[in-house]
Design goal:
Layout: H1 3-11, H2 16-37, H3 40-57, H4 66-85, H5 93-102, H6 113-132, H7 135-145, H8 151-158, H9 162-182
Length: 188
Amino acid sequence: MEDDEIIRLFYERSENAIVHVEKKYGAILGSMAYRILHDYADAEEVVNDTLYAAWETIPPENPNPLLAYLVRIAHNKSIKKYHKNTAKKRNSYYDVALDELEAVLSDADADSPEEKYEARELAEAMDRFLDKIDKRGRLLFVRRYYFSDSLHELSKKFGMSENSVSVKFHRIRKRLRKYLEKEGFLYE
């Protein structure tokens, strides 16, 4: 079933919308959640929470593309669950990926309206930055920092050595830092 038909089902408040979303995108959402959480039960819970959130937000939202909307919800829910699960310990490879960006970005949980606004502005700036880099760099960045692929997995997917992938990330983070400084998000 096409995404616009699924969205129509959401607007009609038909529970078939959830059935079709789960059938079409459940595996993708579950895989992404598992890469962050490394627990099948938690990943399944994230998928269910994502489906519920989609039900609660469509309408009024009319996401296009639907998959990106669902992935964003699942990613955010996975990160929250990850932080809840590992509040007292830091030992997963996902921590390594987060630590790589820590030098570029400050960790801000957006609670206040001001923080939410700043987070949205930062996300838009990062989108503009990603539009400026080459396609391979953009894909690597999204796979590493959004889908939590390891350097080893990325090297296999992109036919590069792990060292080359690591160097590419170093250069991307350096460019990102300069870009965010220029945009006024970071100060030297």
